[in-house]
Amino acid sequence: MSVQRPQASQTPIKAKPCYRHLGGTLGNRLFERLLELGWFRPDEENPRHFCLTELGVEGFKDLGVNPYEGKR
User: What is the pTM of this model?
Assistant: First the structure.
């Protein structure tokens, strides 16, 4: 995955917690990127919901995130 390095003068985008989830501009951009990478897909029965794909499962495992872990 290619990521553009920020210029020294750039200010990082802020993230904010939203009910123990990542929200804000950074959360939205991260989710959009995960959709582009094919890690999530819209649920066929409810397009407002998303399903983790096998590619996403492997991607999260590569990042050290267990996609099967329950809530904390």
Answer: 0.73
